[in-house]
Design a protein that fits this description.
This protein is an all-beta fold and 123 residues long. The chain contains no helices and 11 strands. Strands 2, 4, 5, 6, 9, 10 and 11 form a 7-stranded mixed sheet that branches. A hairpin with a 4-residue loop joins strand 7 (67-72) and strand 8.
């Protein structure tokens, strides 16, 4: 499966952004999807995930209540709605896919990765 992330940009603190991750390829609708981010000099960290079947969602504590992950199965696209952005949300955001996964919170549980999209939040 191929993943194409988009929607990043430069915003001010308190603003919102919506990231998209379009999946293509065989059985692309059968994947759990996750969002991870990596800031300069830091390790990649989990942000949010959604399971492949019933759509259970999981969030990192740092984004809970501000970010929402969702999927449109008709478009094979997963979204990350980011509200009340903070400067510490600045990072490259990656989407990832896990075949028939339940929404893992660790990066090594995902088989496929998108190219990343930069999110920069100014104070």
């Amino acid at each position: 499966v191929q993943l194409q992330a988009s929607g990043g940009g430069l915003v001010q603190a308190g603003d919102s952004l919506r990231l998209s991750c379009a999946a293509s390829g065989r059985a692309s609708s059968s994947y759990a999807m996750g969002w991870f981010r990596q800031a300069p000099g830091k390790e990649r960290e989990f942000v949010a995930a959604i399971s492949w079947n019933v759509g259970n969602t999981y969030y990192a504590d740092s984004v809970k209540g501000r970010f929402t992950i969702s999927r449109d199965s008709t478009k094979n696209t997963v979204y990350l709605q980011m509200n009340s952005l903070k400067p510490e949300d600045t990072a490259v955001y990656y989407c990832a896919a896990d075949y028939r996964g339940l929404g893992k919170t660790y990066s090594f549980g995902y088989e496929y990765w998108g190219q990343g999209t930069q999110v920069t939040v100014s104070s």
